[in-house]
């Protein structure tokens, strides 16, 4: 395992000024994002909606991508400086079409927030037989970022924020069976997809840094949102997430406003200048996960440089997309 020196030295908490209780509005308080453009995938539901709202209140213009654009427009109807465009992360042709439309407008992206995702769904195959969680949570965003690369490279620099999860503790990359063709398990599949998100961040930051593009992976915390739509109530009760009435039962869970805080912090905080390629949670850079198995911090395999480079090469081959940069050795 090879955690490169820079990532290892940066993967420690800093004096961020915020914590797990901070909200997205508190994180952005005092920051003027006027003239800044953000693209937020799935920015009309759950954490994405709270992220869009907070960014707009701070002055940003937000492009929200949506698999269901009519539903997105309805959810965002009360907000100014927001536009909606169609994008299905499970469909490479949809991703290419969105990227082409965006690039044709000649605009630059200051913040690309890869927020959309699915969790613990029944076994589903998309594209050429890809496991859906790996495809949507990782491959779709990988392709989108590569295709939007010309809009990310500009004088002001850009940040790419990807939603990972403490769920990455469930599984490293299963190189022998990435698409779970030898037997599907929904939580290991979710965990692998979130490990992939973190590894994508490591390699994207390495390749993007010379061009002013920095990347961050974020665990938002436990929050009840539509992300749990594939999980039956009985399962969530058994896990202690909710009670029989459907109310949140886990005291460690955050509100959506608190859950969105880490990703807007990663996207906009001036305290992250000079950082990149790190995994964050609770509005701070995470520490390494404890060896005793505690469910916090980042696992070494999720920020391993060799694994990140290997996953990038595989993802580029699967999606037939890559960014035109030097730096591959």
Automatic annotation (TrEMBL):
The keyword Oxidoreductase is assigned to this record: yes
Molecular function per GO: oxidoreductase activity
Keywords recorded for this protein, A-Z: Oxidoreductase
Classification via InterPro entries: NAD(P)-bd_dom_sf, SDR_fam
Presence of keyword Oxidoreductase: yes
Region annotation Disordered: where it falls in the sequence: 1-20
Family indicated by similarity: Belongs to the short-chain dehydrogenases/reductases (SDR) family.
Name by which UniProt lists this protein: Probable oxidoreductase
